[in-house]
Amino acid sequence: MSFPKRFARQPRVLIVAEALAVLGVTAVLDLMTSYRIRLLPFYAVPIFALTWFCGRKWGIAAALLCAVVWWSVNWSTGDPDLHSAIAAWEVPRHVGFFLIVALVGAALRTKSDMAAQRIALLEHSQRLEREIVNISETEQRRIGQDLHDGLCQYLAGLTCSATSLRDDLQELHLHADANAAGELVKLLQDAVVQTRDLARKLVPAHVSRLGLVLALESLAQSVTRLHGITCKCRCHASSANWDEHTAMHLYRIAQEAINNATRHGKARNICLFLNAAGRSIRLRVVDDGTGISESPRKEWDWTLCVTAPA
User: What pLDDT sits at residue 310?
Assistant: First the structure.
């Protein structure tokens, strides 16, 4: 912990006592050096300290007290400026200086407090964003797990039943009905594959198991199979250094970009580019959809650059 923070943790009474002690030492030095050496910066120290740690009222009180101490010491040492008509200028000038120190200290403390509040608000917002993301991830995992363990298994059971029905119909030489049952088997098999792909989208556990590169390649293959379009992945990230949290976010971003390209952009060709080296990661999603403008475009390029923390 830094010295200002340790000093601020002290009781206010102790801070005031220490400021008065500094003022007393300054008065003694001023008395010993006489009026020939000006010690105004030393008088400003207790004023600024009390203003910063105790508030503007304490700073103004300290400024007035320092003015009285300064006047008493320099009057007793025979300062000619205080024993002549110049005193009408010197006294207000020094008092004004002490008050300005207090007011400036109060302004700086107010600005510092506002900056600290903005930082605290930003950190609070970031914590809320992380909590929202975690809640969303948890809900997606729950839905994906339900799809995988519930609907997918149910469809797999129907596929087995339909396969058995097809075989029975073939043994009974009901070829037309057996062909219809075979079509039903194919449809159920496709449904199982699509449900499994949807579950993987919602629960991308393979990102941590296989790594981001293989997960993106699997995503591209899944998009090609589900949407009947061309989706390719080009990754150059052999020397990349990222954590699981960053990899998961990049995977989600790639998912959302592909979803926008297929659903809104009506893209027929999508390509993922991942380039990473060290702490720098660059993700590009290029498609031939319409983009965000009203007029169609031949190619839409979406790029994200990330610098991982040290």
Answer: 47
Q: Is the pTM of this model over 0.70?
A: no
Q: Give residues with Cβ within 8 angstroms of 98, minimum separation 6.
A: 43, 44, 47, 63, 64, 66, 67, 70
Q: Could you tell me which of 215, 212, 271 has the C-alpha nearest to residue 240?
A: 212
**C-alpha to C-alpha distance for 242 and 275, rounded to whole angstroms:** 12
- Give the model's pLDDT for residue 38: 81
Q: Rounded to an integer, what distance in angstroms lies between the CA atom of residue 223 and that of residue 217? A: 10
Cα separation, 33 vs 39, in Å, equals 9
Any bridge partners for residue 109, and if so which? none
In the chain the domains, ranked by start, together with CATH numbers, are 3-124 (no CATH), 208-310 (3.30.565.10)
DSSP string, the chain: --HHHHHHTS-HHHHHHHHHHHHHHHHHHHHHH-TTS--HHHHHHHHHHHHHHH-HHHHHHHHHHHHHHHHHHHHHTT-GGGSSTTHHHHHHHHHHHHHHHHHHHHHHHHHHHHHHHHHHHHHHHHHHHHHHHHHHHHHHHHHHHHIIIIIHHHHHHHHHHHHHHHHHHHHTT-HHHHHHHHHHHHHHHHHHHHHHHHHHHH--THHHHH-HHHHHHHHHHHHHHHHSSEEEEEEEEEEE---HHHHHHHHHHHHHHHHHHHHTS--SEEEEEEEEEETEEEEEEEE-S-TTSSS--S-EEEEEEEE---
pLDDT tens-digit readout, 273-307: 888 776 778 888 888 887 665 544 444 555 555 55
Query: Could you read off the pLDDT of 192-234 as tens digits, one per residue?
Result: 888 877 776 666 655 666 677 888 888 888 888 878 888 988 8
Bin 286: left if φ > 0, else alpha if -120 < ψ < 50, else beta: beta
